[in-house]
Specification:
Number of helices: 10
CATH class of the largest domain: Mainly Beta
Oligomer: single chain
Number of strands: 71
Structural class: alpha+beta
CATH topology of the largest domain: Methylamine Dehydrogenase, Chain H
Strand order of the largest sheet: 1-34-33-32-31
CATH superfamily of the largest domain: YVTN repeat-like/Quinoprotein amine dehydrogenase
Shape: elongated
Length: about 1000
């Protein structure tokens, strides 16, 4: 066919708007997503035979390799190797009793039960003659029944009693037990029996005895009793007992192994050979099993509390979960390299993948549109406001259809590049065309090209948008460009994103600009502020292919890891408060996207339809999301599964008391969610150690090392990303006992011991000081005695001789007598000073204050020896000054008095002592000849002198002053603070007399 003819056919297909009666009809999605597990995923063996769910929401799975507990993510296996009560690994049947006990029947090992974490077994010693148990059942009265290959048993107390073969119940092999709404017990196997109290009735089925061997029995909510046999399915409709009979269900000839009804009234039929089937509204349909693993042998079917349907296959475990998402497969478009999906104004969708398709979602019809030419792959389509069609291709430019006019633009005819990625119609009617090597602008049939040399940030174009200010934003593989007033401009956004791959641009209703990048998350530009969002805030991925906003303000964001939805107001609030957690809903593994790769880089990678559906491009065809479809199931229950203390297993509940150890703690936690857990997030903290919550990313393990002893509370919370404010939690109290050397009482004993040692050392030291003081005191007393016996006695003898000389020589001339009198007076003074020194040596430090009497004695002695009147007077209450201060005052007073008598030739000397609250003041005044104080700088002769007096007074913190003038006498003043006198030099300010 000529190329022109192909283009015309292609254009005609684009222009078709009438109902597509010739479109192929496809089957509607069944509303379930599929997930398969095998041995490589953690199952002990692939053959799955039974299911049950305990009140704690764990799913229990019976396999040929043992009993398996499943929380939705991890398998825990119980078998003969790790559980003594399990005698055979092949678990054929499971049942949860009214009290929550799990009962299991095995293929050769009898029955075992699991209650409160403990397994116990029932076998031949407990009355169960046959260990091949096909079914365990509990009736409304609480009786436990076991059906085996060799008969029917009932648990009476702790033993099983055989029921068949006695009375009117014939012998039979039992494979199924079910109680109907009337309380009658139906037992099927080699026979079909109805037991009603003491009555027993046998029913015949079609096909004879061998063909009628019963494998399963179930009564649906409408009262119909269904019986699955080795050769098909039969049912008994509700009717009077007299007319009760079974009829064969046509179309099923395979062995029906299992029958189960879900909450919506659909009967699930598991067969051997025909796979999984559903009966609803009078019709039976076959449910296609996934490609991996392909199996037509269904051994068990079960609906859990979250409305997941679990299917036990001979080749693995299958879960069917309700979902709002479905993949719309296109013929011949499997695993396409790229794709776009475009919403036309007439409500239809155009999907570009391996071929171009038109979909009418309302009628669920699809049409494949012919390629523009042989070997031409369409990348994207666009209808402008005039109704003209623009079709971008991979390497063949673009095709424009304007009414009957068909134009083909390529690089040779002015297009910047033949690989077209995105179209944009600006408000001035221009069509902007983004390609792999720049941008072309079409206006009135003329093309203008823009490249990096013209100011474009990078040549590979990924997104185009015109904002409400009429600026054109161009997303590229390296930065974003801004077309403003017919030229490329630079602003804060272009600078901030200059190194990012900008694949999507969106403007919200409030004028905010959103930029989706490949690998760096989402950016928002509003009010001069750029805010960054990443997967840490809950986005499905940091690589963003498309950003859509529905009328409710919800953002729909696609990326390589799936699709996420979040209310824009949540993102705006996060921009104001970084601690706020946006509510994000993920669509991924739990919605059937595990084998689907979303597409981007060519726009539009997604669209919104008028009826609220969201569509995105993928390698398996467009993905459709119906937002109003709610997901069943409540909050995920969080549990603490294992606790290791210093490598040893510890209890997971209650108050955990831990003996002293190395401080290593490991806590494994999990959420019980039987549908996918990809939306669940965890946070935990150890109260008493952690200062804030710790966000858990991958491993559900909290590990601590070198944990100090103390009381702790471990808390873990689980929440779904779309409901961050609704959490479930679990906790464990931990009392970690310290080593004996770290206990309070031990530390108290140590402190008390240290204090006792300090007191003992103090007492020893004090005793040593006392002994040294006594030794010093004894030495002082010895010296005093020696002085008294030698020096004082010698001086006294000399004084006596001088007295005798003076008395024997009355006729001595005046000068001789004067010298003798002086020598006599000097000897007396020396004796007095020696006596004072001896007194100072012998008196104790704690002696009573004696400065007053001592000064009075000095005055009296000086007056007697010199015949000069020396008067003494005291004022105030005497206070203790200390030995050093008293000695200083005594020496100063004696020196001053004798100086006044000998050198000043005074006719009268006065000694005044005044005791105040803060100081002791002594004043010695005479009426002698006086002197010039400034001329006296050193002590005279053997006396202290004025300088010595000053030094003595100042050495005890006192103050010394001298007032004198020629022919006007002298006044000497010494003031010593009471504090200084007691040894506390506090810098008291002295005032001179």
């Amino acid at each position: 066919m000529p190329r022109t003819t192909l283009i015309c056919v292609f254009a005609l297909a684009l222009a078709v708007a009438a109902p597509l009666e010739a479109f192929s009809i496809r089957t509607l999605p069944d509303g379930y997503t599929r997930r398969v597990w095998e041995m490589a995923d953690g199952l002990p063996e692939n053959t799955v035979q039974a299911f049950a769910e305990t009140p704690d929401h764990y799913l229990w799975i019976g396999t040929t390799g043992g009993l398996v507990r499943f929380d939705g993510e991890r398998f825990v296996i119980f078998n003969r190797e790790n559980t003594g009560a399990i005698h055979d690994n092949s678990v054929f049947s499971l049942m949860v009793a009214q009290d929550g006990t799990l009962w299991a029947g095995t293929d050769g090992g009898g029955v075992f039960r699991y209650k409160d974490g403990v397994f116990s077994s029932y076998a031949q010693p407990e009355g169960l003659d046959d260990g091949h148990v096909r079914v365990v059942y509990q009736d409304h009265k609480g009786a436990i029944w076991a059906g085996t290959d060799a008969g029917l048993f009932r648990l009476d107390g702790d033993r099983f009693t055989r029921i068949d073969g006695h009375g009117n119940v014939p012998n039979l092999a039992v494979h199924s037990i079910r109680e109907d709404h009337a309380g009658r017990l139906w037992v099927g196997g080699s026979r079909l029996l109805m037991i009603d109290g003491d009555n027993c009735r046998e029913f015949s089925l079609s096909g004879g005895r061998s063909a009628g061997r019963v494998k399963s029995i179930f009564e649906t909510s409408d009262g119909t009793l269904w019986v699955g046999t080795v050769e098909g399915l039969e049912r008994m409709l509700p009717a009077a007992d007299g007319d009760a009979h079974f009829e064969e269900v046509p179309g099923i000839t395979s062995t029906v192994r299992i029958l189960r009804e879900d909450r919506e009234g659909t009967l699930w039929i598991g067969s051997i050979g025909a796979g999984l089937m559903r009966y609803r509204d009078g019709h039976i349909t076959r449910v296609a099993t996934p490609e991996d693993p392909p199996s037509s042998t269904v051994l068990s079917v079960f609906e859990d509390s979250e409305q997941n349907i679990w299917v036990g296959l001979q080749t693995g475990l299958l879960r069917l979960s309700r979902t709002a998402l479905s993949t719309y497969p296109l013929p011949g478009a499997q695993n396409a390299d790229f794709g776009t999906v475009y919403a036309d104004r007439d409500g239809s969708l155009w999907v570009a993948a391996s071929h171009l398709y038109r979909i009418e979602p309302r009628h669920n019809r699809t049409e494949e549109v012919p390629d523009p030419a042989p070997g031409v792959r369409v990348r994207c389509v666009f209808r402008d406001r005039a109704g003209d069609w623009w079709v971008g291709t991979e390497g063949h430019g673009l095709f424009l259809t304007r009414g009957s006019e068909h134009i083909h633009y390529t690089k040779s005819t002015g297009l910047v590049n033949d690989f077209v990625r995105v179209f944009l119609e600006s408000r001035d009617g221009s069509i902007w065309i983004g390609t792999d090597e720049g941008v072309s602008r079409w206006r009135d049939g003329e093309l203008t090209n823009y490249r990096m040399s013209d100011g474009l940030s990078y040549f590979s174009i990924r997104a185009l948008l015109q904002d409400n200010r009429n600026d054109i934003w161009i997303g590229t593989e390296q930065g974003v460009s801004l077309w403003h007033d017919n030229h490329f401009a630079t602003d804060d956004v272009t600078q901030a994103l200059r190194n990012d791959k900008v694949w999507s641009i969106h403007e919200d209703r409030d004028g905010g600009l959103w930029f989706g990048t490949l690998g760096d998350g989402l950016f928002r530009w509003r009010d001069g502020k750029l805010t960054h969002f990443t997967s840490e805030q809950g986005l499905a991925s940091d690589s963003i292919y498309e950003i859509l906003e529905d009328p409710r303000g919800t953002f729909w964001i696609s990326g390589p890891d799936g699709i996420s939805s979040v209310n824009r107001s949540d993102l705006d609030q996060f921009a104001q408060d970084s601690k706020f957690r946006p509510a994000v809903t993920l669509y991924g593994l739990s919605d059937g996207v595990e084998a689907t790769q979303m597409h981007g880089g060519v726009q539009p990678a997604g669209c919104l339809t008028p009826n609220g559906e969201v569509w995105f491009a993928s390698n398996r065809g467009p993905v459709r999301i119906v937002p109003n479809e709610t997901r069943p199931g409540g909050l995920a229950q969080v549990v603490i599964e294992r606790v290791l203390v210093d490598g040893r297993e510890a209890p997971t509940s209650g108050q955990l008391v831990v003996p002293p150890g190395d401080g290593r703690l490991q806590i494994d936690y999990a959420a019980i969610r039987l549908r996918s857990q990809e939306r669940i997030r965890f946070r935990y903290r150890l109260v008493g150690f952690d200062h804030q919550w710790i966000e858990a990313l991958q491993n559900h393990v909290a590990s601590y090392t070198n944990l100090p002893p103390g009381n702790y509370q471990f808390e873990v919370q689980a929440f779904e990303m779309n409901m961050p404010d609704k959490v479930t939690d679990a906790s464990l109290g931990i009392d970690w006992r310290p080593h004996i050397y770290r206990t309070r009482w031990f530390l108290g004993v140590c402190v008390a011991g240290i204090i006792a040692l300090i007191l003992i050392a103090f007492r020893v030291r004090l005793g040593q000081i006392h002994k040294r003081f006594e030794a010093v005191l004894a030495e002082r007393n010895r010296i005093a005695r020696e002085m008294h016996d030698t020096v004082i006695q010698g001086c006294t003898s000399t004084s006596a001789l001088l007295e005798a000389v003076v008395s024997l020589g009355p006729d001595l001339d005046g000068e001789t007598r004067t010298l003798l009198d002086s020598a006599r007076d000097q000897v007396r003074a020396t004796v007095e000073e020696a006596r004072n020194a001896v007194w100072n040596l012998r008196r104790g430090e704690d002696a009573a204050p004696e400065i007053g009497p001592l000064l009075e004695q000095v005055a009296r002695q000086a007056s007697q020896l010199s015949h000069v009147p020396v008067k003494f007077d005291t004022h105030g209450r005497a206070v203790p000054l200390g030995g050093d201060a008293e000695h200083v005052l005594l020496m100063v007073a004696r020196e001053a008095v004798y100086n006044a008598i000998r050198h000043a030739q005074a006719k009268e000397v006065r000694i005044n002592v005044n005791f105040a609250d803060d100081a002791a003041r002594i004043e010695i005044a005479d009426d002698g000849c006086g002197f010039d104080p400034s001329a006296v700088t050193t002590s005279q002769g053997a006396h202290f002198g004025l300088v010595g007096m000053r030094e003595r007074v100042e050495s005890v913190g006192g103050r010394f002053s001298v007032e004198s003038a020629m022919s006007k006498g002298t006044r000497i003043c010494a003031e010593i603070p009471i504090q200084s006198a007691n040894g506390h030099k506090n810098g008291h300010k002295l005032v001179a007399a």
